[in-house]
Amino acid sequence: MVKTLPFEEPVVQLRDKIAELREFTTTSDVDLTNEIENLEQRLVKLENDIYDNIQPWDRVQIARHADRPTSLDYIHGMMTDFIELHGDRTYGDDAAIVSGIASFNGQAVTVIGHQRGKDTKENIRRNFGMPHPEGYRKALRLMKQAEKFGRPIICFIDTKGAYPGKAAEERGQSEAIARNLVEMAGLKVPTISVVIGEGGSGGALALGLANRILMLENSTYSVISPEGAASILWKDAALAKTAAEAMKITAPDLLEMKIVDVIVPEVLGGAHRELDKQIEYLQQALLDSLNELQKMTPDQLVEDRYRKFAAIGQFAE
Q1: Does residue 251 sit in helix, strand or coil?
Q2: Which DSSP string do the residues of 197-228 spell out, in sequence order?
Q3: Cβ neighbours, 10 Å, residue 75
Q4: What is the pLDDT at residue 249?
Q5: Is residue 249 part of a domain?
Q6: H or E stretch including 23?
């Protein structure tokens, strides 16, 4: 059963009422067809009103939804012949990052993504999608391999942030992220990153320095969580809703600021509602971006990437 978010309660209640009337109609001699049709029309209007006027904090809740599709859901849904590769050749493997080679629309690509779990056991194994340094070094190893063999790179971003624990710091968490940023800036193959859920802090940016950044409609991308920002600014995490509005962390705001390049639409209610349809939307957006980038030479790809990030934050007096 799909978890209901607070702002969706009126929709759920109306759906339940329609289901109740349908069941009553089938088990009795009373014909309630007209009433059901009227309620269905009201439901369509209510859904449009709610989802067309969705607030930043509501998008945060959707981005964090337990049933939201993960990197592996998209990899298996739109790619074939996926071969997962493990380890950073220095310390070990990190299950919070999945990476490997796959076929996308008949073309070999390297695919890398944050991976969180769908239940408690898997979340513990994958450290709730928060990578250690070896995860980022594994990602970099795969990126350099992709450059060597001329394969485009597709990254899926979905993390609260890099793991801040003692062991991660001892093994060079900051250096691993910084190294990824430096190396990604100079890659001579097309790179596309997609924010599919939460994109938090440097842990997200380590897979985000790409030629094109796509973002699902109800994802978030920010330097810190709304709760963290509220704790710092107002000493009260309960003001997270206010922080979410002020931080401009949603896809429409980030597109307007030219931090992301494309907003990928989501099915009504969020990507978790209809995975197959959501895969179609994302697959088409990836193909469009890939076709555009493959017309560029290696040097043009590097220059394109440089200009994209150099333009972020420009202002005029």
Answers
A1: helix
A2: EEEEHHHHHTTT-SSEEEEETT-EEESS-HHH
A3: 23
A4: 94
A5: yes
A6: helix 9-27
Residues 219 and 90 in one domain: yes
Reading the block at residue 78, the tokens are 């739109």
Which amino acid is located at 62 in the chain? I
pLDDT at site 305: 96
In the predicted model, residues of the chain with pLDDT beneath 50 are none
- Are 269 and 305 in the same domain? yes
**Owning domain of residue 130:** 65-311
Token digits of residue 84: 């997962």
Residue 46 is predicted with a pLDDT of 81
Same domain, 30 and 80: no
CB-CB contact of 199 with 221 (8 Å): yes
Q: What backbone phi and psi angles, to 5 degrees, belong to 47?
A: -60, -45
Domain total in the chain: 2
Q: Report helix, strand or coil for 151.
A: coil
Dihedral over alpha carbons 59, 256, 192, 276 (to 10 degrees):
40
Instruction: Tell me the sheet residues that pair with 199.
Output: 159, 221
Element (H, E) at 88: none
Mean pLDDT of the chain: 92
Q: pLDDT value at position 2?
A: 64
Q: Read off the amino acid at residue 131.
A: P
Q: With beta carbons less than 8 A apart as the criterion, state whether 213 and 155 touch.
A: no
pLDDT of residue 300: 97
